[in-house]
Write a structure and sequence with these properties.
single chain, alpha+beta, Double Stranded RNA Binding Domain, hpI Integrase, Chain A, 3 domains, 4-stranded antiparallel beta sheet, 3-stranded antiparallel beta sheet, 17 helices, 7 strands, DNA recombination, Integrase, DNA integration, Integrase-like_cat_sf
């Protein structure tokens, strides 16, 4: 028999829970403490039995409970689990109230931090860029309400200010945030997907670097530099390894195996977020032994003067080159260009040179090619030949001085 309000009101709590059935899976459970809750029993699409709550009596009346039962039975008839449907509706409701750009940016950022590794600067830099350039304009706006033209205007302002690198990063970060929003049901389209075609192309400018015919002058000037042994060693190592100046300044002694003549830079310190092996010619090993006598008691090869836990200033190498007379002609980062050009002129394969520079090969080749070319006759031999060439400039200078 169907339940009546009179029967519900007359039924008193017992020592054990009491179930009053209304039929078709609906029942009212009365607990010993007197609380009354509606339950609906049904069979899930996978064939398993289940029970869901429909609320408490009298907040949910008998008539309302029957309506909820009817709705649930209609879903079951369609092959939909009403419990899962309810969870989905709750998610959509939560997402509907948590759909501002800044909230979604925070969620996206939290999912990315583990991928970027704790020591990576990308987590800090990406959030700082969003706080500076995006949140003041769109942070509290519903993400689906921000129009493509508004994004274009923001990016154009960065462009007009000459902040092309910031523009590139903002476009990349925000495009990914929209993808996350679409996946989580809080955005229907990505207004940044096609904006790249409406923006100016950034003109790539090479770092100042000397031509190959002036390389002997640079090598000889560095070799004769006597203002700082640390800086001289650093500039010599840049020429013999072609690493980025920041990778060298932050180098730690634990990364070096001088017996095997290899420097293994961990992924978290690399621009491409992948580990990098640097073969060391014997001249570089000799310089490292010299450097070790000065800084081997520290963790860093190039500890700062005031704080040994931090590397020397990023301006140290550049200032030394200015003192040598290369201001406007050559900067530390330009050394990579000089090495790459010299190796190409010596006839070495592009793949070896690109790997030495820790560059990703273009297109599909970069996706499938992961060879490090560390066999003895490959990159190690190439860099040894390059170091020998650099050394010949010093020997030539010494010979010229002896003749005079």
């Amino acid at each position: 028999m169907s339940l009546t309000v009179r029967k519900i009101e007359k039924t008193k709590p017992g020592e054990k829970p009491i179930a009053l059935s209304d039929g078709l899976g609906l029942e009212l459970r009365i607990s010993p403490n007197g609380s009354k809750g509606w339950r609906f029993r049904y069979v899930r699409p996978n064939g398993k039995r289940n029970m869901m709550s429909l609320g408490n009596y009298p907040e949910v009346s008998l008539a309302e409970a029957r309506e909820k039962r009817t709705d649930a039975r209609r879903l079951v008839a369609q092959g939909i689990d009403p419990v899962e449907q309810r969870k989905q509706e709750k998610r959509e409701l939560r997402y509907a109230t948590e759909n501002t750009f800044q909230v979604l940016a925070g969620e996206w950022h939290a999912t990315m931090v583990p991928r970027w590794k704790e020591s990576s600067k990308r987590a800090t830099q990406s959030w700082a860029a969003l706080e500076t350039h995006v949140f003041p304009h769109f942070g509290q706006r519903a993400i689906d309400d921000i129009k493509p033209l508004e994004w274009l205007d923001l990016l154009k302002r960065l462009e007009a200010a000459g902040k092309f690198e910031q523009r590139r990063k903002i476009l990349s970060f925000c495009r990914e945030i929209y993808r996350y929003a679409i996946i989580t049901g809080r955005a229907t389209y990505n207004p940044l997907a096609e904006l790249g075609s409406a923006l100016q192309r950034q003109k790539k400018q090479s770092f100042a670097h000397i031509p190959q015919q002036e390389l002997p002058e640079l090598v000889q000037a560095i070799n004769a530099y006597d203002k700082s042994t640390l800086v001289r060693c650093g500039l010599q190592l840049l020429l013999m390894t072609a690493v980025r100046p920041g990778e060298l300044r932050n180098a730690r002694w634990e990364e070096f195996d001088l017996t095997a003549s290899v420097w293994k830079i961990p992924a978290e310190r690399m621009k491409m977020d992948r580990p990098h092996q640097v073969p060391l010619p014997f001249q570089a090993v000799a310089i490292l032994h010299e450097l070790h006598r000065l800084t081997g008691r520290y963790k860093l090869l190039f500890p700062g003067r005031n704080d040994a836990t931090k590397p020397i200033s990023d301006a140290a190498f550049g200032m030394a080159l200015k003192r040598m007379g290369f201001e406007g002609r050559h900067v530390p980062h330009g050394t990579r260009h000089v090495v790459a050009t010299g190796l190409k002129e010596m006839g070495y394969p592009r793949e070896w040179i690109e790997m030495q520079l820790s560059h990703k090969l273009p297109g599909i080749e970069g996706v499938y090619t992961h060879a490090e070319h560390m066999a003895a006759e490959q990159r190690p031999a190439m860099m040894q030949a390059w170091a020998d060439k650099l050394e010949s400039f010093v020997i030539r200078k010494s010979g010229e001085a002896g003749e005079r």
